[in-house]
Specification:
heterodimer, A: 228 residues, mainly beta, B: 239 residues, alpha+beta, 14-stranded mixed beta sheet, 21% helix
Chain lengths: 228, 239
């Protein structure tokens, strides 16, 4: 296994984490009220759009769903679709898996790994790179919710705005909920302003399995690239 | 030893098929950049679009967004890094890069559309099992080495010291009956960098949108001058 270090690579554009924004680590949104049509800072302990999900995640410790990513490629004009699986676990773990390509992404607050079989490499993400991926999720952490602005567009659809910071421009995600109040779709515009959507189905809540199931080990022969 | 006639004919037929579909070809690409000049950076996924005779666009992306978008059309060249909201546009690349028509050069490299004049074929030499054809074109020196199958193995472009590139075609795929480069290695003459492009999927774009090759740098993005980019590259080399 070769290990190389790249000093300055900001390889993870911010929207990575819109997937994990939905849940890991959020606390019940006690005290949060719906603000139909009004733009109101979210309560410090969670967003209304994540309330039902957070309640069930907290009760069980682990959530998993089938996901489908859809995006339009502006160069080829093709709609791209990828199906996979998302697993979230308290307190800070997320795992994305795409069986068709073998691509796997593990994110934790202390970093993560991104296995890319087609490139025969695994990116080992340091806290800074993981933070870029976890931006939205971090803002759902206790005490950070106040940095979000959430707006109810309808009974089951919300716009969640992350105000600009020193590192990132303001950004918006749109969250749609299913009849149980669980995330059904997440949409955002990526760094190149292309619209991307993730659809969720078959949410299951289980007992947590621990950090080791969110830690990727590089297969033999895979090049490991360290990102800060 | 190869006969000049059949080799030239095979090359011409294969080239004609590539050029016939080269008006709009798209590909998914795995890319690796290596070399002392660039340090060690991760391999990347990219989307490539080419349009003969003089345009291409390469968009380095992943499921998380776009890392780099670059495009060339004729004499103009543009690049944009969305995560940093920084971009550069050179409308006359020859003035800054010393590179005339980067769009045409990129298209020729990526599609292996090298067209030696008839006189060059007459002067062709044989090296091992390859026919080597060299010619001058608007002050540039070009040379291609062609295999028995009529496909180029290498192509070298030399303008002046510092502006020389060698392309090695390590693999081919077939698209609509045309042989198309499936693996291309680009290397500068000093060996400071090597760009490896592996085209994992290639197809003819039947309905190309007119804007597919147009890179727009958003309003509000920082627009860099070439001198700034050059200084950044020099600093990177010094690391």
């Amino acid at each position: 296994m070769k290990v190389v270090t790249r000093a300055v690579v900001r390889f993870l554009p911010l929207p990575a984490a819109l997937l994990v924004a939905l849940g890991a680590g959020v606390r019940p949104a006690a005290g949060v009220t719906d603000h139909a049509g009004a733009t109101t800072p979210a309560a410090a302990d969670g967003l209304a759009s994540a309330r039902a999900f957070a309640r069930r995640l907290l009760a069980n410790g682990r959530a998993a769903a089938t996901i489908e990513r859809r995006a339009l490629d502006p160069v080829t004009g093709l709609a791209r679709s990828a199906r996979g699986r998302l697993t979230l676990e308290l307190p800070d773990r997320a795992l994305l898996e795409f069986p068709a390509t073998g691509e796997r992404i593990a994110l934790r607050s202390d970093g993560g790994e991104w296995l890319q079989p087609a490139l025969q490499q695994m990116l080992r993400l340091g806290p800074r790179s993981a933070a870029a991926g976890l931006r939205w999720w971090e803002l759902l952490l206790p005490g950070d919710g106040s940095r979000f602005v959430e707006r109810a567009l309808s009974a089951r659809r919300y716009a969640v705005v992350s105000p600009s910071t020193e590192d990132f421009a303001a950004d918006t995600a749109w969250v749609s909920l299913d009849a149980q109040g669980l995330p059904a779709e997440l949409e955002y515009r990526d760094s190149s302003d292309s619209r991307v959507s993730y659809r969720f189905s078959g949410w299951r809540f289980q007992r947590p399995r621990g950090r080791s199931s969110f830690l990727l080990v590089p297969p033999e022969g895979v090049r490991v690239v360290e990102l800060p | 030893m190869l006969e000049l006639g059949p080799a030239a004919a095979r090359y011409a037929r294969a080239l004609a098929r590539r050029e016939a579909m080269g008006g709009a070809v798209d590909a998914e690409v795995s890319a690796w950049l290596r070399g002392d000049a660039v340090g060690q950076i991760p391999g990347m996924h990219a989307t490539l679009a080419v349009s003969g005779p003089d345009a291409f666009r390469l968009r380095v992306d992943s499921m998380f967004g776009v890392a780099l978008d670059c495009a060339a059309h004729g004499d103009s060249l543009a690049a944009y890094v969305p995560s940093r909201r920084m971009g550069i546009r050179l409308d006359a690349a020859v003035d800054s890069l010393g590179l005339r028509s980067p769009g045409a050069l990129g298209y020729r490299v990526l599609s292996a559309s090298w067209r030696p004049p008839a006189a060059a074929w007459a002067r062709a030499t044989t090296q091992d099992s390859l026919r080597v054809v060299s010619w001058e074109e608007a002050g540039d020196s070009l040379s291609i080495a062609i295999g028995a199958n009529g496909l180029p193995r290498t192509a070298a472009f030399h303008r002046r010291p510092g502006v020389s590139v060698r392309a090695t075609y390590r693999g081919w795929t077939f698209v609509d009956g045309a042989a198309w480069p499936a693996m291309v290695e680009l290397q500068d003459e000093a060996g400071r960098f090597k760009l490896i492009l592996k085209l994992t999927r290639v197809w003819r774009n039947e309905h190309p949108a007119p804007e597919r090759l147009v890179l727009r740098i958003p309003d509000g993005a920082e627009r860099l001058e070439w001198s700034q980019v050059r200084r950044a590259i020099e600093r990177a080399r010094g690391l």
